[in-house]
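Batch manifest line 246
LIGAND: S-adenosylmethionine
JOB: complex structure
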Amino acid sequence: MDKIFYDIFLPLPRQGPGCREATLRALSHVHLQQENPRVLDIGCGTGAQTLDLASVLTGTIVALDNYQPFLDAIRSRAEKYPLKSVIEYHCGDMNDLCFAPGSFDLVWAEGSIYIIGFRRGLDAIRPLLKQNGYAVFSDMNWLKENPPSEAIKLFRVECPEMMTVQQNIELIQRSEYELVQNFPLDVQVHWEFYYGPLEQRLISFRKEHAADQDIQNLLDTLQHEVDVYRRCSSYFGYTFYVMKRT
Ligand code: SAM
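JOB STATUS: finished
ARTIFACT:
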């Protein structure tokens, strides 16, 4: 079933909520000392943010994901993209980031830090950064108190450690980073660039695999997240955090 899951997401423009404008807005708060920085992009998926970063930064971006076909997709998308950076491809596990200490000027985790957890992510990434290096994460957060029970139930399974923005800010401050900036992604960005294309993909995939009950069940689960977001979008959503290693 894993392969089916990835097949659903492979042709999508991105595998999590975000957009070029938000990526570049976060990057505008990063003031790198190196002219040709070395950047690590973890959980890069098919590279929406990798390519956006590579279109403006000069240097090297190490695109890391544990699913090789996603990395292959970046390679072929990169051929049609005007790039200023070199992209290196690294198929690996973000739970085991085997890079030398101080290897990177910037570590980027867009829509992926939940895989190791925000707190663990801060701790794991800090040693990889040069002094005064930056980390940029986007993370799904609770935005209001008393979310509807269907949202609580969904994230109890999907993302049991989901925090509020304030809780994440406290973790950043306790983890020897300076919080440079944080901002939420608009509801419309969640729809236009992620939940909308995902919903269309679920409809077509459902038709192609009408006879397979396991696949239909998986599609129901993914559609449920889209439906809960449609009903509860003021209660949860993505926030960007731009942080500097102190
Ligand atoms: N950053 C991309 C974006 O916003 O479009 C992708 C975000 S997607 C929600 C999370 C990505 O993390 C997927 O591409 C998935 O293959 C990758 N991933 C999941 N577990 C991982 C792991 N243990 N190590 C490295 N990558 C992982």
